[in-house]
Write a structure and sequence with these properties.
176 residues; alpha+beta; 2 domains; eight-stranded antiparallel sheet; six-stranded antiparallel sheet; 14 strands; 22% helix
Length: 176
């Protein structure tokens, strides 16, 4: 019986070490937002998305996002637009999923799924039927170190972020 209790105790200790304590550490970190790597964001996104009556493959290597401290996500990924008309390809470059309302230059974007593109100094947002929702101005960041095809960067103040396509960036915040 003593051997059984010892084994039970060791199993319980192992459980706490590998499952309960890491969960407590994560709970302590709650409240802070974190920018996701392409690998982390890619694990949360599908291989293909629906947009304008077609299915487009996602480029998971070009995924990014934010995991907010309360558990909500905002994710963005570039898509393969072959098969779409030239008019759609000109403005639809990526897919944006958000579980929370965002603010882009005074424009409010509620939780949902959207198409987006960076075109001629503007960040375009469309619904999944390819209807324009809004445009927000972008900035060109010539000093951006190692620009990527798509990335989220922390902004100049807390709670502010930049979604960048190469060196072209749009600033956004989470609406409160």
């Amino acid at each position: 019986m003593k051997r059984f209790r010892t084994s039970l105790f060791l199993c319980f200790a192992a459980f706490l070490t590998f499952f309960a304590f890491p969960g407590l550490a994560a709970a302590q970190a709650a409240g802070s937002d974190s920018v996701l790597t392409a690998q982390a964001a890619g694990k949360l996104l599908p291989d293909a998305v629906f947009y304008a009556g077609k299915s487009a493959n996602t480029q998971l290597r070009n995924a990014t996002g934010i995991h907010f401290g309360d558990g909500a996500y905002t994710l963005a990924v570039l898509v393969d637009t072959s098969g779409y008309s030239t008019a759609v390809q000109e403005k639809y470059q990526g897919y944006l999923l958000t579980e929370t309302t965002l603010q882009f230059g005074g424009h409010s974007l509620p939780a949902g799924a959207y198409g987006f593109g960076f075109v001629k100094g503007q960040f375009l947002v469309m619904d999944i039927g390819n209807h324009d929702i809004f445009q927000a101005g972008t900035t060109h960041d010539a000093n951006l170190h190692l620009p990527r095809p798509l990335q989220v960067l922390s902004g100049s103040s807390g709670g502010e972020y930049r979604l960048c396509s190469g060196r072209d960036c749009v600033t956004f915040t989470r609406a409160h």
